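Appendix B, Record 12. Input sequence as logged:
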Amino acid sequence: MKRRSLIAAAGAIAAAPALASCNGGGSSRGNVGNAGKDLVPWPTYVPFTGPAPDAPGDDAVGIQPLYLNYPAQLAQAVAEAPGDGSEVTAMVVTYEAPPKPLEQNSYWQAISKALNIKLNLVVVPDPEYAQKMTTLMAGSGDLPDIVMFTNLNLPRRAEFIQRVCADISDLVGGDAVKAYPNLANIPAYAWQGMGRIGGRIHGVPLERPMPANSMFVNRSRLDEVKAPLDWNHDQYMSAMRDLTSGRRWGTSWYKTLFGGLSGITFHAGTAGAPNGWAVRDGAFVHTATTPQFEQALGVMRELTSAAVHYPDSLTASSTDMQNNFYNQTVASLPNGFGFLALPNLLKINNRFTLGLARPYSPQATAWRGTGNFGFATFKKADPERIKMLLRICDYLSAPFGTREYELVNYGVEGKHFTKENGVVTTTELFKTENSATVPVRYIGTAPTVLHLPGFPDVARAAYDWEKAVMPRSVANPQLGLQSATQSAKGSRLEQILGDGIAAITFGRQPVSSWKDTVAQWRSAGGDELAVELAKEYQAAS
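Logged structural output:
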């Protein structure tokens, strides 16, 4: 549920293959672009008719439905166990300590039994994930049955997927997805954010709500210093100063993969900078080239000059900074919206109230995320094997209000949780056995809703934040597009911008030096990237 902001360094990330033995179509090898291709239709959206929310959602702007109580009656989403009794190996990322082995883990055992498989997990810690994936993509060894890709800009990722992973277009494109009702319930924005490769569909998206990397706050401490919910720049800076004393700081960020700082997303959106890119008269204009983005860099520099940020931000990992937030060393934390999750609230343990910072300027255009945390791909296999793997993803993607959702998200009743009067109460065992420690949610996941058992006030406050912020939010037009330059040079381009962001933020360079960073980015491939994305965008329109 906790994800690093990998769009922070460059302002955005492109999200992005053949059941070749099972279809007559497919893209030509080595050409991952979509321009000039026959595009397989996106899966037909068939929403689940579930329990009525306490407050409605709005997919058009990214507002989630709010559920203050747990449904009294649950639906059965899957008629029979999806597996065939075989072993299935999945490689997934984790942000937690390694799980207890299957033989000692009752949650893992229950999931395997419900799926009717022996589920083997290759669990890769987040700091090692990029290297592990790079090694996997460079090797010639056997792939796991399921490989989960985060929205990490790995070089030649799309080419690798197209070459060695199953093209599932004929199984999920258009009305074909109706054979997997829970996959059909995944909103269109999640599929589109994942994107096609060579006109084809090569994965199942792991849906996430539309808000992008957001600024989580210790609302209790902000209330102590009388910081308002809606604030201006001066009030924001004043609150950060008031929160900083001794060994406690008002704000924090952490270094992202390519050298940038996670907080830039919040500040750039507050300044009204485009979300990654803007399309102007058919041309792609990168957010880094806009005066609003430079304005955001000025605020980042202002925060470090005022000494209100955690001083070891360039060496602290995302996990380190989350722990600093839990223990109240820092009062604000930029993180993916999936951080708003029950396991994290249990770690806070009512020491303070978790909240979300609203933008501090009237021109704010909050950034929307990719609509997914990544996607699950499948090793090429015979058609029946691929269909079984899709059924497994379908089970794990069962929506809120179903028995399958309950098992995946809360475990076994009486063991991992209890229910009474519309409230789910988790047990001590849940802290070590759940879908984060045994990360099956990175194989398949339900569309998210705002329901936080035991924390209805936090859920209500998050809903109010979405209502206030998301109607003015903006999407990144790059999402789902392919580019040869992005594939070959994307990480280098992000490194250039990330290094420039860090240099200005920490005072090694003045804000005025940003124009030199942009010029370097342009000459290193940024201008080529803009041309390619414009072509892809036109083809997808």
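Residues 514-540 form the longest helix (27 residues).
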